[in-house]
Each structure stands twice: as structure tokens, then as C-alpha cells.
Amino acid sequence: MDDSLERIAEEVSCCSLCRLSATRKYAVPGDGLCSAHLIIIGEAPGRKEDEIGKPFVGAAGEILNKALEKAGIERSNVFITNTVKCHPPNNRVPESDEQSTCRFYLERQISLIKPKIICILGGVAYQSILGGQSIMLNRGKFVNRNGQTYFLTIHPAATIYNRTLLKILETDLVKLANELNRQKIKEHLPKNITTENNRHSDCLNTNRDLPMHNK
């Protein structure tokens, strides 16, 4: 049987491969289009997500929705998920083994969607996916790794406790939207037209080790 987002969602909904399955109400596989050009990956489902079974439907989700709208990115055109598919008790950070267990589902989702850009929200997702250590030092940057482009920004939940970070999130998402639009325009140009160099002055060179800093 061919793989699909629906099949992955079914597997996630009854998954019992890690301890998070024992305390969840609903697993949260992710939400969005298989044809999405953008995947957004956060840390883990929260309490509200656990009650409903969909990602980013709580307070952080409202902040993300408004920031996406302000940047001109339609959430309906995006696929959104997390590094783990179940809510960790007491909103704790998901353990490394929980993240690695869920990675199988995430990698399959990415493989099916084949996004132009993966947006990583927050330090936990940054460390889990790219091995990075400081989201604040690297936010707003594009990372090229194994043929995939990633974009780094803060988790919208961080703006709940520090409102000054909201402008940073909004600015980063505008930058992300501009790059998505640039790629769409480039796709429709005739092949004999030379386009601008695709390298970003702020793109991390991932042929070298990522900078290691404390959070």
C-alpha cells in the first residue's frame, strides 16, 4: 500500500511506541495539505491540542495564525505538525527518546509533502531536527541541509511570556513569506532567463558544524 498523510494519521492515532501514549487524550498527527510548499514544525502538542487532536489550536496557535496572516501566509496552504505527536504531561519538554520515536512519522510526512521550506519553531525543534543549540542566535536564518531548506524562528508560545518577542516572530515570518514568493516567481520564469543567485547572505553553511551556544 502506498504511503499517505491519511495513513500516517491513522497510525499516529493508535501509536503506543513511547510513554506519551499512556497519558494523551488524542494524538496530534498534523494538519494541512499534501501539496503544501511550507511545513511548520513546533515542539509538541499542548493541552488544547490534546483535547482536540489538531496542532496549534490554543493560545500559541492564535498567535501563530495572526503572525502568518500578517505575513501573507495562508494557514490553509501550510502543513503544521510537531516533533512529537502527543502532549507531554504538564507541558514538559519531550524527551530525546520520545522525539526519536516520533521522527519516523515526521520524516514520512516530509517525504510525502516535499516542501520547498520547513519552518522550525523554537529551540526544542531546532535541536531535535538540526542539532542546533540557540534559536535566538540563529532565528531569521535559512539553513540548507541535505537538499532541504529550513527556516528558523522562535516558538509563538515564547511571545506569551515575553511580548517583545512578538515583533521578532512577525518580522521573521515576513522574511519567510518573501522567500516563498521569490521561489514561486522563479519557478514560472523561462529556463533561459538567468535569475539571481540563490544563496542567502544570512544562510547558515551547514557543511560546517552549527554554532553551539547555550539557550
Short description:
This protein is of the alpha/beta class.
Strands, helices and their partners?
Elements: H1 5-13, E1 38-42, H2 47-52, H3 59-71, E2 78-82, H4 96-113, E3 117-121, H5 122-130, H6 135-138, E4 142-145, E5 148-153, H7 158-161, H8 165-188
Parallel strand pairs: 1-2, 1-3, 3-5
Antiparallel strand pairs: 4-5
Write up what this structure looks like:
The chain has 215 residues and is α/β, with parallel strands linked by helices. It has one domain (5-188): Uracil-DNA glycosylase-like domain (Uracil-DNA Glycosylase, subunit E, 3-Layer(aba) Sandwich), CATH 3.40.470.10. It is 40% helix and 12% strand. The chain is built from 8 helices and 5 strands. A 5-stranded mixed sheet has the order 2-1-3-5-4, with helices on both faces. A hairpin with a 2-residue loop joins strand 4 (142-145) and strand 5. Helix 3 crosses helix 8. The longest helix has 24 residues, at 165-188. The chain is globular and about 50 Å long. The protein starts with a helix and ends in a 27-residue tail after the last helix. The model is unreliable at 193-201 and 205-215 (pLDDT under 50).
